[in-house]
Design brief:
Elements (H helix, E strand, L loop, with lengths): L2 E10 L2 E11 L4 E5 L6 H8 L7 E6 L2 E2 L5 H7 L1 E4 L11 H10 L7 H7 L3 H10 L15 H14 L4 E5 L7 H18 L2 E6 L2 H7 L3 E5 L2 E6 L1 H6 L1 H11 L1
Parallel strand pairs: 3-8, 3-9, 6-7, 7-8
Antiparallel strand pairs: 1-2, 1-4, 4-5, 9-10
The chain binds adenosine-5'-triphosphate and magnesium ion.
Length: about 250
């Protein structure tokens, strides 16, 4: 297993944000985490990235215990996170953003030239093309449409050499076609780089489209794992979602 999370708990005062979360992810696996607002999804990512320390439990990444490590150390081990709000450098162009991200990765080196020479970087060029980003390559990131910005940020995680991508609601605020393009990009990155990917999503239609295993989280616990149909049919998941809408 690339990632093993066991019995993770976290409180904020009287709020029990996580109550014994168990979750595993194999190398090269893609898994979705769904659950209603406030059920602890982002808190889980905050612990995985070293922003927060758990009160109890442990996280093992690639054989090494990482809970409680500093965020920069975890990042260096190859865990990259996309936040709910895009974290790109808005004055830089698309290619410059990718280049900045890739400088954090010693083995890749001069991405700028390899983008054009068919080296390692040609993979990114293909991703940029597939993600409809290539035509924006020389535009400042601030001028990009919302969906393009979000996809750029995902590619930056890849350029950094992340082995585990943590995506927190990557399609929030997107149109249906932007969402589909993002799903394609996630699947392509996974197929081509072998990176494992955990995707937090609120939206069950995303989960249906991406067609990957799902872990359903309710009130700080993973209550069910399975495919879309299993999760969709689960009474506890259904009532949590209905309760939220009511
Ligand atoms: N730093 C914090 N300090 C205090 N309370 C927090 C903190 N972070 C999260 N919480 C609380 O912990 C609970 C879980 O929050 P979290 O952000 O993990 O939920 P979420 O599942 O990501 O929700 P959403 O779908 O709205 O993004 C919520 O009740 C939230 O208010
Ligand atoms: Mg959240």
């Amino acid at each position: 297993m690339l990632l093993e999370i066991s019995d993770l708990s976290k409180r904020f005062g009287g709020i029990r944000a996580l109550r014994g979360v168990d979750l595993t992810l194999g190398g090269g696996e893609v898994k979705c985490i769904i659950g209603p607002n406030g059920c602890g999804k982002s808190t889980l990512f905050n612990i995985l990235t070293g922003v927060l320390r758990p009160d109890e439990g442990k996280v093992i990444f690639d054989g090494q215990r990482i809970d409680g490590l500093a965020a920069h150390k975890i990042s260096r081990l190859g865990i990259g996170r996309k936040f709910q709000v895009p974290g790109i450098l808005s004055e830089l162009t698309v290619l410059e953003n990718i280049e900045v991200a890739s400088t954090a990765r010693a083995t890749l080196g001069g991405l700028w030239s390899t983008l054009f020479s068919g080296g390692d970087g040609s993979v990114y060029r293909r991703h940029l093309m597939d993600a409809d980003l290539w035509k924006y390559a020389d535009q400042p990131a601030s001028e990009l449409p919302h969906g393009i910005k979000q996809r750029l940020e995902i590619l930056m995680l890849v350029a950094r050499g992340s082995r585990l991508l943590l995506l927190d609601e990557p399609t929030a605020g997107m149109t249906a076609s932007e969402t589909n393009a993002t799903i394609q990009l996630i699947n392509e990155i996974n197929a081509e780089t072998g990176a494992a990917i955990l995707v937090i999503e609120h939206d069950m239609s995303f989960v249906r489209s991406i067609g990957r295993p799902v872990a359903a989280m309710i009130r700080g616990r993973i209550v069910r794992e399975g495919d879309y149909d299993d999760i969709q049919a689960d009474p506890e998941v259904r009532s949590a979602y209905l309760g939220e809408r009511a």
